[in-house]
Amino acid sequence: MKTYTKDYFYDAENKFLPERAKDAIEEFAKFHGYPVYEGFRNSLWVSDMGVGDFTKVGIGVNMVANDEDDRYMLQEIFMLPHTMLPEHCHVSPDGIVPVKMEGWFIRFGKSYIAGIGEDNLAEYPEVVIPANHNNGTVTVKHITPALPGQFIPLVKKESYHWQFAGAEGAIMSEVANYHSNAGCRHMDPAIQKAFEVGDKM
């Protein structure tokens, strides 16, 4: 698998380069045998969540469907090796749109899915919280390692959760009811602020 340094994803002023991130995700998908269909790149959303290091905190997403009226969603998630999807939860943005409930079907690689429950983080020393995620901290520490063919649901609505990709990254399908960006709450205030002002998926 091709590997990347932080510098690949940023210009001289440390500005994130989305097209470079898309290059990496496309190469990553091909490595795993994921079908890179026509239009794949155009439908891909990438973000470093404002932390400034796509090799530590970052994600690629293809939002396949997100129907507000009939309340269903399907998206494909791409996480490069040893990257973190930041800790966050979902709430109703207006008291009318239902709280998002979701689950993940792993297709390639491995994801360590974290949520509420007994703290077993110490059992997985390969899971390293990046220093640029809330000073290297999280609040929920129950880890469920997930491999291809496994479906892991969120334990409880409105509960915090995060993910960490294994040595070969992770590609997964997320199924849920409607996703609202306004209903997404990141535990790290800096990431939440960046999410609110940045490009939305």
Features:
9 strands; 201 residues; 12% helix; 9-stranded antiparallel sheet; 2 helices; single chain; mainly beta; globular; Jelly Rolls; 34% strand
Task: Kindly summarize this structure in a few lines.
The protein has 201 residues and is mainly beta. Helix content is 12%, strand content 34%. It has a single domain (6-197), classed as Jelly Rolls (Sandwich).
Distance between the termini: 27 Å
Mean pLDDT: 96
State the shape: globular
| Alpha plus pi helix count | 2
| CATH C-level label | Mainly Beta
Helical content stands at 10-25%
Number of extended strands: 9
Q: Name the beta content range.
A: 25-35%
Radius of gyration: 16 Å
Overall number of structural domains: 1
What's the architecture in CATH terms?
Answer: Sandwich
What structural class do helix, strand and pairing data support? mainly beta
CATH superfamily: Jelly Rolls
Unreliable spans are: none
CATH topology: Jelly Rolls
H/E element order: HEEEEEEEEEH
Name the quaternary structure: single chain
Explain this structure to me?
This protein is mostly beta strands and 201 residues long. The protein has a single domain, classed as Sandwich (Jelly Rolls). The protein has two helices and nine strands. Strands 1, 2, 3, 4, 5, 6, 7, 8 and 9 form a nine-stranded antiparallel sheet that branches. Strand 2 and strand 3 form a beta hairpin. The protein is globular and about 45 Å long. The mean pLDDT is 96.
